[in-house]
Amino acid sequence: MTATAPMFLDVGGTSIAVRQSQGAAVRPSQGAAPGVVWLGGYKSDMLGTKAETLAGWAAKEPRAFLRHDYSGHGESGGAFADGTISKWLAESLAVFRRFTQGKQILVGSSMGAWIALRMVQELRKAGDASVTGLVLLAPAPDFTAELVEPALTEAQKQDLLEKGFFAEPSDYSAEPYIYTRALIDDGRKNLVMGGPIDTHCPVHILQGLADADVPSSHALKLAALLPADDVTLSLIPDGDHRLSRPQDLDLLLRAVGDMVQRGM
After folding, report:
1. How buried is 241 (Cβ within 10 angstroms: 0-12 exposed, 13-18 middle, 19+ buried)?
2. Cα separation, 186 vs 142, whole angstroms
3. Which residues contact 28 (CB under 8 A, 6 or more apart)?
4. pLDDT, tens digit, for every residue of 42-57?
5. How far apart are CA 119 and CA 130, in angstroms?
6. If we measure between CA atoms, which residue out of 145, 141, 150, 135 comes closest to residue 42?
7. Could you give the CA distance from residue 257 to residue 103 in angstroms, rounded to a whole number?
């Protein structure tokens, strides 16, 4: 589908690009079905395949759909290297609070799943119980501490110490991934997998068993930390980290559609 021009929200002096589509009008007796909020991954933008597929689905429903680019990503301002989990979380909360009304389903991909889990924590602290479901794709909560730090080479450790960052080739872009010391240090302040996680809502995790970036054991660990909630874990035998094949996208739409129905 052809994306409309984004709106922009100033968050802490940074211009955050936002796209929003409204759902169908409902009679008061019907109640409003939950809207859907997309949270992308590390160095991904809101015009990626999964986000655009969800946007097309939401338009046909019609269903309220909200997405944004973190600072340093896509059409938003700011430098990617200045980003941290705390910064991207604050931007996501600002967009959520400004543009949503009523019940919402958070759909988080990779790092976006970490942002989604932290958003629920922060919203609940503020007395906001509007999130009624989570759909998490190839979830990478705590990836800086659980996946990046344990695998650091001596050369990467030296780069972090001397340069404040290290670069790693990306399978998805001509530009390398940049991991900064600030990102890793800040990640420790946002860890969610140190004990039970109470989201107060159902969670559906989609995980590819052929994921070379986030191992399936990480999704299994996450599922085991959600004992108080209704958790569904869908393992896709030949699914990779992107989960962007037609069959993966079909599964995503079914999972989101089911979660919307449960939240009504």
Report:
1. buried
2. 11
3. none
4. 999 999 999 999 999 9
5. 11
6. 141
7. 14
CB 102 within 8 A of CB 84: no
- Is 197 in contact with 134 (CB distance < 8 Å)? no
The position carrying tokens 């992308």 is 40
Structural tokens at position 262: 């449960």
Q: Which residue type, as a one-letter code, is found at position 182?
A: A
4 Cβ neighbours under 8 A, 6+ residues apart? 19
Q: Running DSSP on this structure, what letter comes out for residue 69?
A: P
Segment (H or E) for 230: none
Residue 16, token pair as written in the block: 């955050």
State pLDDT tens for residues 4-59: 899 999 999 999 999 999 875 443 434 578 999 999 999 999 999 999 999 999 99
Q: Residue 139 corresponds to which tokens in the numbers above? A: 């979830």
- Residues written for the chain: 264
